[in-house]
Amino acid sequence: MQKFSKVILPFLEEEKYDYTCIFENFNFSIHKKVHQQLENEKNSEQIKECRAQDQFEIKETMQLQSGTILHKAIDVKNNQIVSLAIYRDVEEPENEKNDDINEMVFLPKLKHQNILKFCDVVVGSDIEILAFSFESHHSLLSTVIDERVDLLYEAHVIKNIMHQLFKGLDYLHRKSVIHRDIHPDNILFTSTGVLKIWNLRNARWMNQRKGEVKTFEYRYQPIELILEFETCTTAVDIWSAGCIFAQLLQKKILFPMYERESVLSQIFALLGFPTQKIYKELYAYELLIDLLKYLGHHYNCLDIHMKNNCPEACTVPVLNLLHSCLLYNPKDRLTADQCLHHEYFYTGPAACPPEDIVKILEASNINKNLRQFKNKKAL
């Protein structure tokens, strides 16, 4: 077909009209419908392969702040202990199905020692409710932190945890996956002391349209996520890892406020408001005028803050790695691989063996059981 078709009407002059756009739009609609049909068929096939929830015996249940329900369960069919996760979007429950599909896309493709191993999709009596079964876990990092086991904050233990975390992130990033929601609820340990990253509902492929990050945890997010910049890179996970590093070093959250605006305020107060030379992209932000109230924060006070809160832990390699994770410009942050090769991991003390992590997990369990016993007794 020629690009221009002639249209001659008796009461009009001869004119040319471009019909190509109509056919292009028509073809696009057909392709879109076919693609959607194939996706639906694929999802239907995945549902057929799902396990039934009555094949699992629930032993222990925990509800996370996000609304997610995490069970420790027995897979009756295979006679093994598993983790069973049922995700709940408290604020926007209508998005749950899309998030389930997002997780189903990523999980089967990821196999690494520091990524929680996916087993099966599980369907309950209500087919609208999907659960995901994983290898068994012992404790969430957030639970261990809450129980305040002293050994957790020893320098050699922190080094072990950070090394495992960066190894997991390095694997994800090499696979072109951006997690986008790294925080202590999304990190857990097995009974052998192995750290596992999980919950990829906010994950994106590199160069994929970014999409909204649906999370309750802004305290571990860099400003490019908080301000919803168009571009999103693996560097967002490095910032989050830096926040966890600081939290373990000083035994408290680096940016403790919950609301977006409050977290932004704390970031600028601690790290100073970036100049255009430091972070040019920030000055192209459409709502920059709303941030100008923070211009009075001129200095990066991270060193002073850390030395005031944990002077013994603040060696030169520690502070250097922390700074390298918490840089404003994502392009300037270290990659996970560069973090693994940082001098921090090659200077003493050496990272602790897995047995020390196991001791921490056991102590955390004892503390939790004692606390629960006291609470029941008080009632």
TrEMBL record:
<feature type="domain" description="Protein kinase">
    <location>
        <begin position="56"/>
        <end position="345"/>
    </location>
</feature>
<dbReference type="InterPro" id="IPR011009">
    <property type="entry name" value="Kinase-like_dom_sf"/>
</dbReference>
<dbReference type="InterPro" id="IPR050108">
    <property type="entry name" value="CDK"/>
</dbReference>
<dbReference type="Pfam" id="PF00069">
    <property type="entry name" value="Pkinase"/>
</dbReference>
<keyword id="KW-0723">Serine/threonine-protein kinase</keyword>
<keyword id="KW-0418">Kinase</keyword>
<dbReference type="GO" id="GO:0005634">
    <property type="term" value="C:nucleus"/>
</dbReference>
<protein>
    <recommendedName>
        <fullName>Protein kinase domain-containing protein</fullName>
    </recommendedName>
</protein>
<keyword id="KW-0808">Transferase</keyword>
<dbReference type="GO" id="GO:0007346">
    <property type="term" value="P:regulation of mitotic cell cycle"/>
</dbReference>
<keyword id="KW-0067">ATP-binding</keyword>
<dbReference type="GO" id="GO:0005524">
    <property type="term" value="F:ATP binding"/>
</dbReference>
<dbReference type="InterPro" id="IPR000719">
    <property type="entry name" value="Prot_kinase_dom"/>
</dbReference>
<keyword id="KW-0547">Nucleotide-binding</keyword>
<dbReference type="GO" id="GO:0004674">
    <property type="term" value="F:protein serine/threonine kinase activity"/>
</dbReference>
